[in-house]
Specification:
alpha/beta, TIM Barrel
Length: 238
Amino acid sequence: MDADSSSALANQILSNTSSAYGNIEIVIFPDTVSLAQVALLFESSSIVKIGAQDGPLEKSGTLTGSIAVANISQFCDYVILGHSERRSKLGETDEIVAKKATVACDLGLVPVICVSNGEVSNADPYLGIETQLQAIPREILSRGELLIAYEPIDAIGTGSPGNPKTVEETARAIHKVISRIVPTINVPVLYGGSVDAENVTSYLSLKGIDGVLVGGASLAADSFLSIVDEALHIEHAQ
């Protein structure tokens, strides 16, 4: 999506955002080129927050091609780290994600750290997820100011969403691992993977799932706001 399309989409979302949405948390993650322009559109909004799709590796210095620290700290409240596409296609390691998470927290941002099954074994199907969670610096987990997004690899951009039962079991495993590391902290867990208005309720109603990370369905205002409406209905029903 180009910058003009991103701005047009943001305008549509902004003009159709209801005050009723104040009961739920909405975060939009524009691409880096569109970040400043979209953030300025929502500058006076108390309902929609802005996040970046990736974060800087260092708090100071320069890294060609990386998002500028000044931009992310000025325009963002959240940042996605360790997305499965960056891990698989760009070779981002758990160590790199951990460094970016530390920088994000130092800048006052909330990291949304993505984890996926990765390495599995017959003895422990959650081995890959546990390894990724254990790589997150303990001091970040201790603050509790982060989100974990579970992404089944085969559900990312495929139109084949994860099985809700499996998602719930994985969420339980994630909470169990985190509670072993920091027993007193409850870290929210999101589900991401081919989420749309038709299936979002089946995920938001799961025990241990606190929200969703929406991909392709967020590229059209109608479909994105339909997901928000479904989330609002669940919030009111609780």
